[in-house]
Design a protein that fits this description.
- By secondary structure, the chain is α/β, with parallel strands linked by helices.
- It is built from eight helices and seven strands; from the N terminus they run βαβαβαβαβαβαααβ.
- The chain starts with 6 loop residues before the first strand and ends in a 16-residue tail after the last strand.
Length: 257
């Protein structure tokens, strides 16, 4: 019960890493606030948590809408009395090469992955100050390394890491810790859309040092650590959870075996 009674907002909580994080936090005693646009899926996740003995409440919100974010934070504090933890996990990506991506699509990559995190952090700040709370931002290995066709998404995720570092510096004196998790390949619905068959999943897994794609629960555990008191002296950190992908220098056909 490492998070007993901690009121926690988790965005993008209707599936994948967000859902796994919500379930994991509830297991540790948190009061989980599920946020996403899809009400039906939020209701499903909330029901599953309640059936397992946890506490969860869902708020269907478009986190790229500034007024909706302002209202969300007000409602959560009014309904639950405080705010202890914020997990910015919501994401939206429009792929496209730099030479072909129109400016509107470029900007849409930022609205949810970066702008929403800024809005939520800004509005949550007074309440996180009261609770000496924690923020965990979910970035991506695309924010560290280039990937053809993902320039907008990669730039947004790199920006999220910069936002994390700056907030850690500005908010440390208020007792707020701000950290980032950097996931690699995980078996989430978006990943399964890109790799729907076992052959493509296994090929991707073989390309990783650990030899497999991750389970969302494995990323949720990393988020849990950074949000918990076990990370009480950790702020401004970037925890990579990618099966070793970014640790490897690809040297082509060279081998020293």
């Amino acid at each position: 019960m490492r998070l007993k009674g901690k009121v926690t907002i988790i965005t993008g909580a209707s599936q994948g890493i967000g859902e796994a994080t919500a379930v994991r936090f509830a297991e540790e005693g948190a009061v989980v606030i599920l946020v996403a646009r899809r009400e039906k899926e939020l209701a499903r996740v909330s029901s599953n948590i309640h059936e397992s003995g946890g506490k969860a409440f869902f708020y269907p919100v478009d986190v790229s809408d500034e007024s909706a974010v302002n209202q969300l934070i007000e409602d959560v504090v009014l309904d639950h009395g405080k705010l202890d933890i914020l997990v910015n996990n919501a994401v939206f990506m429009i792929p496209g090469s730099i030479a072909r991506l129109d400016f509107s699509s470029w900007n849409k990559n930022f609205k949810v992955s970066l702008d929403a995190a800024f809005l939520l952090m800004r509005e949550a700040f007074p309440y996180l100050s009261e609770s000496c709370g924690a923020v965990v931002n979910v970035s991506s290995v695309c924010g560290l390394l280039g990937s053809a066709g993902t320039a907008g998404y990669s730039a947004a995720k790199a920006g999220l890491l910069a936002l994390t570092r700056n907030a850690a510096i500005e908010w440390g004196s208020h007792g707020i810790r701000v950290n980032a998790v950097i996931p690699g390949a995980f078996l989430t619905p978006p990943t399964l859309e890109l790799m729907p068959d076992n052959e493509s999943q296994e090929a991707t897994g073989r390309s990783l040092p650990l030899g497999r794609i991750g389970n969302p629960l494995e990323c949720a555990n990393a988020i849990l650590f950074l949000a918990s008191s076990e990370a009480s002296y950790v702020t401004g950190a970037e925890l990579v959870v990618d099966g070793g992908r970014t640790a490897e220098l690809v040297t082509g056909t060279a081998s020293w075996d």
